[in-house]
Every structure is written in structure tokens, then in C-alpha cells.
Amino acid sequence: MAKIELLNINGEKVKDIKLNDNIFAIEPNDAVLHNAIVLNMANARQASASTKTRSEVRGGGRKPWKQKGTGNARQGSIRATQWRGGGIVFGPTPNKNYKKKQNKKERRLAVLSALSYKNLDKELIILENLSFEDNKTKNMINLLDNLKIRNNKVLVVVDELTENVCLACRNLPNVKLVTFEEVNAFDTVNADNMLITESALNKLEEVLTRE
């Protein structure tokens, strides 16, 4: 089993712990991981683009000229699609559904692949415990400084959310705080570093080995 350092809140090594090779040392599946990332981005997409058809554009109720005798091509409305200011053919509508699906085994494999990459790239940090005496943002900043990841995008994983930790992370745009149950492939890949507590790691391994 792979070993990794367990650090305290000051960034000092406490001991070495073992990681589950079936979670953090598998051969990553790039195709499934890519599909999971595309799925996450597609499902977060808002179908807000909208255009009007010729029936929705204002005006154009009168026939611009008579059907015959003018020498011009026949026209029924100045809001037809070939006219400037007319309706749009096959344009985007807010009703478009961008949702994608992925089966349970693929989602699990994507998470395992993302976690294995984090371990392989030395971007995984295990904390002995994460708790603060008060809710000041400075506490979280000091922790990131101690771990030398102050300017990185950090995914913080805990076993349960506490008020002080939540408030300490809230004002940091480069920090995302989640529980072990919310870990997904997109957030893991999107972060420069994954910071997880020892208790959250144990529960995450238990969940992923059970599935």
C-alpha cells in the first residue's frame, strides 16, 4: 500500500499512513474521467440563450406588396427569416436540455481515477484534524501558508461541516469546502490540491470500497 505523510495544522509531519491502493493507486481511465467532467459542466449549463421566430418578432403583419405585378419576388411579411430584422430559423431556445447521464460504475471509476491522479501528482494532503477556535478567515490563510498552498485552488474535504471552518473558508475564492460524501471527479480534477482530514479519508475509503 502507498504511504503518505499525515500533517498537523502547522504543516508538521505526525506520522506516515497507508492509502488504499484500490482507490489511490489504480490505473486512471482518462476516457471515463473526461466524460465525467463534460457531464458536470453540461449539467451546470443554463439554457438561457434565446432567439425569436418570425411569429414572435414584432410587426410584419401586413403583406409588404401585392402578390403579382410588381416584378419583385413574392413576400408575405417583412418579418420572414430572409429579411433584416426578421425571425431566426432554428435558433437556440431556453427549452434546450443539455443534461447528460453517466451510470454509477462509471461515476465511481471517474472519482477513483481523479483521486489516483491527485496521489500520483503529489497533490494530496492529509491533515490530522481541521478545527479552529474562531471563525476568522485568517485561520484558514495561516493553514494554507503552513502547507505552502496559499495561492493554489484547494478542495478541502472534511467528515462533517463545522461553523468555524465553514466561515473561515467562505471568503476565500480559491478554497472549496465539501464533505466526503460530496467528493466528485470534477472538483477533484479542478483543484490544484486536495486537502482532506484523516477521519474524512477513512470514511471516503469506506464508501468507495463499499460501492
Task: Describe the model.
Helix content is about 35%, strand content about 15%. The chain is an alpha/beta fold and about 210 residues long. It has 2 domains: about 150 residues, Ribosomal protein L4/L1 (Ribosomal Protein L4, Chain: A); about 50 residues, no CATH class. The protein has a 6-stranded mixed β-sheet with strand order 2-1-3-6-4-5. A hairpin with a 5-residue loop joins strand 1 and strand 2. Helix 2 crosses helix 3.
Assign the CATH topology of the largest domain.
Ribosomal Protein L4, Chain: A
Strand order of the largest sheet: 2-1-3-6-4-5
Shape: elongated
Q: What is the strand tally?
A: 6
Low-confidence spans: pLDDT under 50, at least 5 residues?
none
Helices and strands, in order, run as: EEHHHEHEHEHEH
What is the makeup of the main sheet? Answer: 6 strands, mixed
Question: By CATH's scheme, which homologous superfamily of the largest domain applies?
Answer: Ribosomal protein L4/L1
Helix content: 25-40%
Q: What gap, in angstroms, lies between the N and C termini? A: 20 Å
Radius of gyration over C-alpha positions, nearest whole angstrom = 27 Å
**CATH class (first level) name of the largest domain:** Alpha Beta
Residue fraction in strands: 5-15%
Coarse structural class: alpha/beta
Domain module tally:
2
Work out the helix count: 7
CATH architecture of the largest domain: 3-Layer(aba) Sandwich
